[in-house]
């Protein structure tokens, strides 16, 4: 005999079908805490058996499962007379419209996208369970009425039937009003709100009680243009209807696009008594349009900008460079003998090789540089640089060295080298087409001199090599001459405003070269094999300084030190970290090590082992520049990461760019779901700080709080014990 859970102390019985244990537990815990009786099934076969043994009130069904997928499970459920009335909500990480059409055709009542939002899961579960119960109650009421009709006299049959029909219509109208996913707002003739439905609260954040009696203008994103608003009102008054797109504002101040349909309700005399507005949140639809726009400006295989977008990026870079007295270099890169890869391994392998190369190039260039693919195995890179072209030359050398390593694709080791031609504005041309043409000429010259090389359209090699050798010669004695200094950028807790840690940043001031930026000397240190000795100096300096701070009673300051790829590849790095901590008596929990995807991508298996050893001794691991590469999520699954850092490129426009805001919010949500902390980098304005604080970011660093400062300056800051959030 089936249990009737509607009569027990529970909000309803829900069957969750999900093959991912973490998602299954998340949904089960969420709904159990909300008062539901939850049953679980990790696959389609068990789901069908469980439902047949006792039909639930609602099924949350994962679309993508091994064996019987969600679509087949739904079809079988709907073919079963005992189960075809059980509502099914599909769970899917996909945003494919075809999947939604197929799901609704099979009888699904709703879709919920992954990653899950707790409020959405609870709201939709509650709506469909309540709707199901209401439908059951309606059926029972209908049966009762029919029984009474049979007992009444023939004279009253018509009246009773009409009354039953009216009640059913009113009940159905009420259910539709309550259960619809679109927001409904009813106003009086003056535009004051008199009723709203639950979907309105879900979309806007306002409860019905908060808006009753308020003018409907409250829901608009900004003060409407009077002429446009008057035209809307006149259209509704004259024709009785208006529909179009609006920009609305939620209770929390967030704006979103909506599709509005407004109508009037008139009494028997034709006088307006009410206005009814139905609107839906079309943020997702806008996102789909954004994807279409993206594909029209990007290469389909690699996701890189295509030639159309490359022209726009070049024009922007050139205009900015002219204002700053700089130049723009265009690099044309071609893979040497790429045809042999297609001939030997097939075109599928060739396409995967191009994707790996595009990924590498994107991670290798600096922020602000542009990598494009023009077809085949030809790539272009747009670089803003100074007159000495130091960044351009360093980038070319780094790319050549990185691509020279064997690529492992589907278990196959493939060797790829490249040739690069470079043309520079001011001397080699001003238009994009002219620079590309001249860079192609230089590319041909690079192949002529033996491939796996780069060449300028004009002869600049001697001067650039001398500059590079000058840095190399000075760099080798920098530690002995005590030219390095560690600066510390404070990391601020967003709950207390206190400085809870710092990122250690290396600075070099040379008597011959002056202040040399880290992005110039650190790549050369890696190239010349000096990065390990410099990294050891930094680690010892930081540990010695932390010991001083701890002894001075300034608090247990936690400092994060960046690990370069060369250090991470060195087997002696992990033992050295252990011995250094012991040497200075610093507890491991006060040392953090920051890595980037590029740091560990050379040998991921070796990286996993090293990171786990560091975790075992108590050192925390931060993943820097998260989200700027293609493999971030796979790394999160494999590597024992404690902290995710939101890259400055997403923070810069987080308050004005919806895409950057969505990425930042996704990083925060993802990190917290994985029990990680989140640190935002490059926070420069109060608006950025307040936005990320409100969204649950844990810590921040950036110029808004403090530039990187030397140990003395950081010590003074710690002694002040200021709340930096109140600045």
UniProtKB/TrEMBL annotation:
The keyword rRNA-binding does not apply. The modification 4-aspartylphosphate is found at residue 62. Residues 242-294 form the PAC domain. Keywords: Phosphoprotein. Residues 175-240 form the PAS domain. Pfam families: EAL (PF00563), GGDEF (PF00990), PAS_9 (PF13426), Response_reg (PF00072). Residues 468-722 form the EAL domain. The keyword Protein biosynthesis does not apply. InterPro entries: Biofilm_reg_signaling, CheY-like_superfamily, EAL_dom, EAL_sf, GGDEF_dom, Nucleotide_cyclase, PAC, PAS. Residues 13-129 form the Response regulatory domain. Residues 326-459 form the GGDEF domain. It comes from the Bacteria. This is EAL domain-containing protein.
């Amino acid at each position: 005999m089936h249990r009737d859970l509607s009569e027990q102390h529970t909000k309803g019985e829900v069957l969750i079908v999900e093959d991912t244990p973490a998602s299954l537990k998340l949904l089960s815990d969420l709904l159990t805490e909300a008062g539901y009786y939850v049953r679980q099934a990790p696959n389609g076969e068990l789901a069908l058996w469980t439902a047949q043994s006792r039909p639930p009130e609602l099924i949350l069904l994962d679309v993508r499962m091994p064996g019987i997928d969600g679509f087949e499970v739904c079809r079988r459920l709907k073919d079963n007379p005992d189960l075809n009335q059980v509502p099914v909500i599909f769970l899917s990480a996909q945003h494919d419209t075809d999947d939604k059409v197929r799901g609704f055709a099979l009888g699904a009542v709703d879709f919920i996208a992954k990653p899950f939002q707790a409020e959405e899961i609870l709201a939709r579960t509650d709506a469909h369970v309540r709707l199901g119960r209401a439908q059951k109650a309606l059926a029972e009421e209908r049966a009762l009425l029919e029984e009474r009709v049979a007992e009444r006299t023939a004279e009253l049959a018509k009246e009773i039937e009409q009354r039953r029909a009216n009640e059913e219509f009113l009940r159905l109208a009420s259910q539709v009003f309550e259960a619809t996913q679109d927001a409904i707002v009813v106003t009086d003739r003056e535009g004051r709100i008199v009723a709203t439905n639950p979907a309105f609260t879900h979309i806007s954040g306002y409860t019905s009680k908060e808006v009753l009696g308020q003018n409907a203008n409250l829901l608009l994103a900004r003060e409407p243009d009077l002429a446009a608003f008057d035209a809307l009102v006149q259209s509704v008054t004259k024709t009785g209807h208006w529909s179009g797109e609006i920009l609305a504002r939620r209770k929390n101040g967030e704006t979103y696009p909506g599709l509005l349909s407004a109508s009037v309700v008139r009494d028997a005399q034709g006088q307006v008594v009410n206005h009814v507005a139905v609107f839906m949140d079309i943020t997702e639809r806008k996102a789909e349009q954004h994807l279409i726009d993206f594909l029209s400006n990007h290469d389909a295989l690699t996701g890189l900008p295509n030639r159309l977008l490359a022209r726009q990026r070049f024009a922007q870079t050139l205009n900015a460079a002219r204002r700053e007295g700089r130049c723009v270099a265009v690099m044309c890169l071609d893979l040497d003998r790429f045809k042999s890869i297609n001939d030997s391994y097939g075109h599928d392998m060739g396409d995967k090789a191009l994707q790996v190369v595009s990924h590498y190039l994107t991670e290798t260039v600096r922020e602000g540089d542009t990598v494009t693919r023009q077809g085949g195995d030809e790539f272009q890179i747009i670089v803003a640089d100074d007159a000495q072209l130091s960044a351009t030359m360093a980038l070319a050398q780094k790319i050549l060295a990185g691509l020279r390593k064997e690529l492992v694709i589907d278990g196959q080791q493939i060797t790829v080298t490249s040739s690069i031609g470079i043309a520079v504005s001011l001397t080699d041309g001003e238009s994009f087409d002219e620079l590309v043409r001249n860079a192609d000429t230089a590319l041909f010259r690079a192949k002529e001199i033996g491939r796996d090389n780069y060449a300028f359209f004009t002869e600049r090699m001697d001067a650039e090599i001398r500059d590079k050798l000058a840095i190399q010669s000075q760099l080798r004695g920098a530690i002995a001459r005590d030219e390095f200094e560690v600066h510390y950028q404070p990391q601020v807790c967003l709950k207390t405003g206190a400085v809870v840690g710092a990122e250690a940043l290396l600075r070099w001031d040379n008597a011959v070269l002056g202040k040399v930026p880290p992005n110039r000397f650190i790549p050369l240190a890696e190239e010349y094999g000096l990065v390990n000795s410099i990294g050891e100096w930094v680690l010892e300096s930081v540990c010695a300084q932390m010991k001083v701070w701890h002894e001075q009673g300034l608090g247990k300051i936690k400092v994060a030190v960046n690990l370069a790829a060369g250090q991470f590849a060195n087997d002696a790095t992990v033992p050295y970290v252990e011995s250094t901590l012991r040497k200075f008596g610093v507890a491991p929990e006060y040392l953090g090590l920051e890595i980037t995807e590029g740091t560990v991508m050379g040998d991921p298996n070796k990286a996993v082992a090293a990171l786990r050893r560091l975790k075992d001794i108590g050192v925390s691991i931060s993943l820097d520049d998260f989200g700027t590469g293609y493999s971030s999520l796979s790394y999160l699954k494999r590597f024992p990461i404690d902290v995710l850092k939101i890259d400055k490129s997403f923070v810069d426009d987080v308050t004005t760019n919806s895409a950057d805001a969505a990425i930042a919010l996704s990083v925060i949500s993802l990190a917290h779901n994985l029990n990680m902390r989140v640190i935002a980098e490059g926070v420069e304005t109060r608006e950025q700080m307040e936005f990320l604080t409100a969204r649950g970011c844990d810590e921040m660093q950036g110029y808004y709080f403090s530039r990187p400062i030397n140990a003395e300056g950081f010590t003074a800051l710690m002694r002040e014990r200021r709340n930096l959030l109140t600045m």
